[in-house]
Amino acid sequence: MASYKRSRLKDAGYRRVVPLVLLVLTTVLVLVVIFLLRNEAGSSYYSSYDDEVDVESSSLEGGDHVQLEPKFRPKLPEMTDLAMSLEQRNQLPPRNRDLFPHLAKDHIKIVLYVHNRPQYLQVVVRSLSNVEGIGETLLIVSHDGYFAEMDRIIQSIKFCQVKQIFAPYSPHLYPDRFPGVSPGDCQDKDDPDEKKCRGNADQYGNHRSPKIVSLKHHWWWMMNSVWDGLTETKRHSGHILFIEEDHFIYSNAYRNVQLLAKLKPMKCPDCYAVNLAPSDVTSKGEGWESLIVEKIGNVGYTFNRTVWRKIHAKAKEFCSFDDYNWDITMWATVYPSLGSRVVSLRGPRTSAVHFGKCGLHQGNDKSTACIDNGNLSFDTDEIDKRSNIISNWPVYVFKKKTGYQAGFKGWGGWGDERDRELCLSFAYMYHFTEVSSG
Question: Which cysteines are cross-linked by disulfides (predicted)?
Answer without folding.
Answer: 186-197, 268-271, 319-423
